[in-house]
Request: fold
Amino acid sequence: MYIKKLYLLLLLPVFLVGCASNNSSNKGEYFSKIENPSIDHVHGIGFPGGQSDLFLATHDGLLKLKDGQWFETTINNHDYMGFSPFKDGFYASGHPEEGTNFKNPFGIIKSLDEGKTIEKMKYYGAIDFHYVASSYETGAIYAVQPHENLSIEPGIYYNDGKTNDWSSSSSNGIPLDSITGIATHPADSNKVALLTTNGLFISGDNGKQFNQFASKSPITSIYFAKDKLYFSSYLGNTSTLSTYNLEAKETIEIGRVELKEDAIQYMAMNPTNSDEIWFYTFKNSLYVSEDAGESWSIKVEQGKVL
Reply:
């Protein structure tokens, strides 16, 4: 339970009913440029479709940061929970925008065109998955269901990205309601990591068996790269970014950033430039590093674009 108090302190309320409005004057465009957006209720960040533009999944649709300019969607302004990009698009769960014909909740959905069109996959109209992870190269996907539901039993559900057949893992006795994050390897989807209130656990067999990763400080965010697992640790007013080498089993701290009573919630790496790493905090700040995590610059501070 060593990071439970941290999450209670930092995590902003999550609203479960999708509600969005469209104030764009460019009705014919899917993405419309916006000036000085107020950014909050972000449920994931990343680079869907293998592109270099950063996407933020919010309570009111998708935001895109392209060449220093912000854009918002003019349709499909859904509450995207569990947003997880992969090389062809993104997976998500959550709740539909009011006034649409989608059932609530989404179950698992997929888009291959930045959210213009949405494919209904599994558990549509039955489950809102808060924790979803996809393998960037393979398209395989994991989803955590912590509680009993009329549709499925509690478990960690896995899909290979090629069919709509799903299987569940035993999770090796890890309490499902303790999970606060999940990540999977971009090329080897057998490897999956769980962030829990009791620490970080890593599996190499689709979640059948997990080994606990030892850390002296609370871990708040995880991200898989090809040869290592990135993780952030909370040190009061400072957060560290470290890597854990999956083969050598070696941990290296690569950078620190001062965050006053805040911590890293989501991380993402630009698929076209591995030195470019982004993170989003619990209190709605967005940072970028262009030197693989050694130094950071802030782009959004507590919801305000700088």
